[in-house]
Design goal:
By secondary structure, the chain is an alpha+beta fold. 14% of the residues lie in helices and 28% in strands. The chain is built from two helices and eight strands. The strands form two sheets. Strands 6-4-3-7-8 form a five-stranded antiparallel sheet. The protein has a three-stranded antiparallel sheet with strand order 1-2-5, with no helix packed on it.
Length: 181
Protein backbone atom coordinates (compact mmCIF):
# COMPACT_ATOMS: atom_id res chain seq x y z
CA UNK A 1 0.00 0.00 0.00
CA UNK A 2 2.85 2.41 0.78
CA UNK A 3 4.36 1.92 -2.70
CA UNK A 4 1.04 2.67 -4.40
CA UNK A 5 0.50 5.82 -2.32
CA UNK A 6 4.01 7.08 -3.06
CA UNK A 7 3.58 6.34 -6.77
CA UNK A 8 0.32 8.31 -6.84
CA UNK A 9 1.91 11.27 -5.08
CA UNK A 10 4.92 11.27 -7.44
CA UNK A 11 2.65 10.89 -10.46
CA UNK A 12 0.50 13.80 -9.29
CA UNK A 13 3.50 16.06 -8.67
CA UNK A 14 5.20 15.16 -11.93
CA UNK A 15 1.97 15.46 -13.90
CA UNK A 16 1.35 18.99 -12.64
CA UNK A 17 4.81 20.29 -13.60
CA UNK A 18 4.67 22.46 -16.69
CA UNK A 19 7.33 22.28 -19.34
CA UNK A 20 9.20 25.25 -20.79
CA UNK A 21 7.32 26.50 -23.86
CA UNK A 22 8.47 28.55 -26.86
CA UNK A 23 6.13 30.54 -29.12
CA UNK A 24 6.28 33.32 -31.70
CA UNK A 25 4.09 35.97 -33.29
CA UNK A 26 6.01 35.41 -36.55
CA UNK A 27 6.38 31.65 -36.96
CA UNK A 28 4.20 28.65 -36.10
CA UNK A 29 5.09 25.05 -35.38
CA UNK A 30 5.58 23.27 -38.70
CA UNK A 31 4.68 26.41 -40.66
CA UNK A 32 6.51 28.01 -43.56
CA UNK A 33 8.65 31.02 -42.59
CA UNK A 34 8.03 34.34 -44.34
CA UNK A 35 10.72 35.45 -46.81
CA UNK A 36 11.48 38.48 -44.61
CA UNK A 37 13.14 36.02 -42.19
CA UNK A 38 15.24 34.43 -44.97
CA UNK A 39 18.93 35.21 -45.41
CA UNK A 40 19.77 38.38 -47.36
CA UNK A 41 22.77 36.99 -49.25
CA UNK A 42 23.73 33.91 -51.30
CA UNK A 43 20.80 34.61 -53.65
CA UNK A 44 18.16 33.97 -50.98
CA UNK A 45 16.35 37.30 -51.41
CA UNK A 46 15.22 37.73 -47.82
CA UNK A 47 15.61 40.59 -45.37
CA UNK A 48 17.32 38.46 -42.69
CA UNK A 49 15.04 39.69 -39.89
CA UNK A 50 15.04 37.45 -36.83
CA UNK A 51 11.52 36.46 -35.75
CA UNK A 52 9.78 37.42 -32.50
CA UNK A 53 10.23 34.72 -29.83
CA UNK A 54 8.58 34.30 -26.44
CA UNK A 55 8.98 31.62 -23.78
CA UNK A 56 6.99 30.69 -20.69
CA UNK A 57 6.77 28.15 -17.88
CA UNK A 58 10.39 28.78 -16.95
CA UNK A 59 11.75 26.16 -14.55
CA UNK A 60 12.70 27.14 -11.02
CA UNK A 61 16.43 27.77 -10.66
CA UNK A 62 16.88 29.28 -14.14
CA UNK A 63 19.76 31.76 -14.07
CA UNK A 64 20.05 32.55 -17.80
CA UNK A 65 18.95 31.39 -21.25
CA UNK A 66 20.64 30.28 -24.45
CA UNK A 67 18.86 30.60 -27.80
CA UNK A 68 19.84 28.47 -30.78
CA UNK A 69 18.55 28.11 -34.34
CA UNK A 70 19.64 24.99 -36.17
CA UNK A 71 18.91 23.42 -39.58
CA UNK A 72 19.25 19.63 -39.28
CA UNK A 73 18.49 19.22 -43.00
CA UNK A 74 21.48 21.21 -44.31
CA UNK A 75 23.57 19.27 -46.83
CA UNK A 76 26.48 18.92 -44.40
CA UNK A 77 27.57 16.23 -41.97
CA UNK A 78 26.76 18.45 -38.99
CA UNK A 79 23.69 20.48 -40.00
CA UNK A 80 23.88 24.30 -40.00
CA UNK A 81 23.77 26.79 -37.09
CA UNK A 82 21.81 29.95 -37.95
CA UNK A 83 21.80 31.77 -34.60
CA UNK A 84 23.39 31.31 -31.20
CA UNK A 85 22.73 33.86 -28.43
CA UNK A 86 23.67 33.26 -24.82
CA UNK A 87 23.80 34.97 -21.43
CA UNK A 88 20.19 36.07 -21.88
CA UNK A 89 19.15 37.20 -18.37
CA UNK A 90 16.74 34.96 -16.44
CA UNK A 91 14.12 37.73 -16.22
CA UNK A 92 13.91 38.04 -20.02
CA UNK A 93 11.18 35.89 -21.60
CA UNK A 94 10.72 37.55 -24.98
CA UNK A 95 12.80 38.88 -27.87
CA UNK A 96 11.22 41.24 -30.40
CA UNK A 97 11.40 40.76 -34.14
CA UNK A 98 14.82 41.91 -35.35
CA UNK A 99 16.59 41.34 -32.01
CA UNK A 100 19.16 39.04 -33.63
CA UNK A 101 20.17 41.51 -36.30
CA UNK A 102 23.62 43.03 -35.85
CA UNK A 103 23.45 46.56 -34.55
CA UNK A 104 19.74 46.38 -33.68
CA UNK A 105 20.27 47.12 -29.95
CA UNK A 106 17.12 45.06 -29.22
CA UNK A 107 18.92 42.40 -27.19
CA UNK A 108 19.35 42.92 -23.44
CA UNK A 109 22.75 44.20 -22.34
CA UNK A 110 25.29 41.41 -21.86
CA UNK A 111 23.77 38.99 -24.36
CA UNK A 112 26.43 37.47 -26.61
CA UNK A 113 25.67 36.43 -30.19
CA UNK A 114 28.35 33.99 -31.23
CA UNK A 115 29.56 32.78 -34.58
CA UNK A 116 27.19 30.84 -36.79
CA UNK A 117 27.91 28.65 -39.78
CA UNK A 118 27.63 31.80 -41.90
CA UNK A 119 30.91 32.74 -40.13
CA UNK A 120 29.22 35.78 -38.63
CA UNK A 121 27.60 36.74 -35.36
CA UNK A 122 23.88 37.25 -35.02
CA UNK A 123 20.87 35.86 -36.82
CA UNK A 124 21.30 34.32 -40.26
CA UNK A 125 18.01 33.33 -41.82
CA UNK A 126 17.10 30.27 -43.86
CA UNK A 127 18.85 29.78 -47.16
CA UNK A 128 18.67 26.16 -48.29
CA UNK A 129 20.04 25.17 -51.70
CA UNK A 130 17.43 25.62 -54.44
CA UNK A 131 17.35 21.89 -55.22
CA UNK A 132 17.20 20.73 -51.61
CA UNK A 133 13.47 20.89 -50.90
CA UNK A 134 11.99 21.79 -47.53
CA UNK A 135 14.30 22.38 -44.56
CA UNK A 136 13.40 22.50 -40.87
CA UNK A 137 14.63 25.35 -38.67
CA UNK A 138 14.69 24.47 -34.98
CA UNK A 139 14.39 27.54 -32.75
CA UNK A 140 15.30 26.38 -29.24
CA UNK A 141 15.41 28.14 -25.90
CA UNK A 142 17.46 26.54 -23.14
CA UNK A 143 16.95 27.42 -19.46
CA UNK A 144 20.38 27.35 -17.84
CA UNK A 145 21.46 26.72 -14.26
CA UNK A 146 24.42 29.10 -14.66
CA UNK A 147 24.42 32.92 -14.84
CA UNK A 148 26.77 33.16 -17.80
CA UNK A 149 28.71 31.06 -20.26
CA UNK A 150 32.42 31.91 -20.18
CA UNK A 151 32.74 32.77 -23.87
CA UNK A 152 33.01 35.73 -26.19
CA UNK A 153 31.37 36.17 -29.58
CA UNK A 154 34.15 34.28 -31.38
CA UNK A 155 33.15 30.91 -29.87
CA UNK A 156 31.81 28.17 -32.14
CA UNK A 157 28.30 26.69 -31.79
CA UNK A 158 29.65 23.26 -30.74
CA UNK A 159 31.29 24.72 -27.63
CA UNK A 160 28.08 26.51 -26.70
CA UNK A 161 26.23 23.26 -27.35
CA UNK A 162 28.45 21.43 -24.89
CA UNK A 163 27.66 24.03 -22.21
CA UNK A 164 23.96 23.64 -22.95
CA UNK A 165 24.31 19.89 -22.52
CA UNK A 166 25.94 20.13 -19.08
CA UNK A 167 24.03 23.17 -17.72
CA UNK A 168 20.49 23.03 -19.12
CA UNK A 169 17.49 22.70 -16.81
CA UNK A 170 14.98 22.48 -19.66
CA UNK A 171 14.65 23.23 -23.36
CA UNK A 172 11.79 24.03 -25.71
CA UNK A 173 11.84 23.97 -29.50
CA UNK A 174 9.67 25.57 -32.16
CA UNK A 175 10.30 24.15 -35.63
CA UNK A 176 9.50 26.17 -38.74
CA UNK A 177 10.15 25.31 -42.38
CA UNK A 178 11.50 27.03 -45.47
CA UNK A 179 12.44 26.14 -49.06
CA UNK A 180 13.56 27.89 -52.22
CA UNK A 181 12.01 25.51 -54.77
Amino acid sequence: MKKIGLALILSSVMGSAQALELSSDDIVEGGLMDIKHAFDQWGCGGKNISPHLKWSDVPEGTKSFVLTVYDPDAPTISGFWHWVAFNIPADVTELPQGAGNQGSKLLPQGVVQSNTDFNAQGYGGPCPPTTDGMHRYQFSIHAMKVDKLPFGADINPASVGYQIHVNSLASATLTATYNRD
